[in-house]
Design brief:
CATH topology of chain B: Immunoglobulin-like
CATH class of the largest domain in chain A: Mainly Alpha
CATH architecture of the largest domain in chain A: Orthogonal Bundle
Number of strands of chain B: 9
CATH superfamily of chain B: Cupredoxins -  blue copper proteins
Largest interface: A-B, 16 and 14 residues
Shape of chain A: globular
Structural class of chain A: mainly alpha
Number of helices of chain A: 8
Distance between the termini of chain B: 32 Å
Oligomer: heterodimer
Order of helices and strands of chain A: HHHHHHHH
Number of domains of chain A: 2
CATH class of chain B: Mainly Beta
Strand content of chain B: 35-45%
Largest sheet of chain B: 4 strands, mixed
Number of domains of chain B: 1
Radius of gyration of chain A: 20 Å
Largest sheet of chain A: none
Amino acid sequence: MRYFFLFISLFSSLYSLDKSYEEGKKIYERTCASCHGINGIPNPEIKFIVSPRNLSKSILTEEQNYHIIKDGSHFWGSSADIMPAFKTLYNDYQMRSIAFYIKEAFNPNVDTKVKELYAISDSIPKEKQEKMLTHGKKIYMRNCSWCHGATGEGDGEATRHPELSIFPYNLKKALLTNEQMFLYAKYGGQFWGTHKDDMPSWSRKYDDYTLKSVIRYIDETFKQ
Amino acid sequence: MTKNFQMLFLLTTIIGTLNAADHLVDQKGKTFIPHTLIVKVGDTITFRNSDPFAHNAYTDDEVNEFDIGMQAAGTDTTITIKGKGEGHFNVECAIHPNMLVEVTVK
């Protein structure tokens, strides 16, 4: 009898996931694919000022995608307002289904990938940990503040030069975890599916200790 | 005697200025061109931004520390090499991490 209930429970969970996947697929193909592409790879003919994210490379988790679908990217720190909020168009189940479909169809191992890449980065010895905040601040002010601004709000001096046409994130609102932020700094945004190298890879210039110091400074100073 | 020294100093300065060269470093395709530069004290380096977007050039070198700030597209900025003798320092762009020029002072 116990096994019967276990079987029913497992069957209904799988059925529910399958239903969510199909619902997400249906909406994705109807709404999202026109920008992000049917396979999660953006249509190159789309000419927005900021091209849609390549979802097959994206580092974002299912939960983060759900929040961006719900509120739009601007709400979560993007300077550009290209990815709109869908909360007035779809209900919560539908938005969660889209996020589930994106993860399952285009990037099923994203969580493992983040953990694995972060795990191979250098660990910081105890004697260096105390200096991380001051070191991170120095590097942030030297390099990052040009775009992300001295207070992390994405309003650095470079944003006042229209020829750059960059859209740095407001770090106070960004959804990324510290591990994801480190991987963005190390590999650059394009590696994770953003359309151009606005956020460049800093790994040639700085070691893991320096990049982790910057992330710690951001985390302790700007994140809300 | 003092007057002679003053004259000698003035003459040295004038000769130094006449000997000083200007080196052009172009910023094109997110690259400093050339990558390496040999200069002497008193020379100037002109950073030209030929890219259609903004750049920067800075060094934390103790003797020649400078930061030209945000350099708009199509503009030139000139700095003068300071110091008393030989040295070596790197100039980088704070916005684009792969940009580097190695400067040797001889």
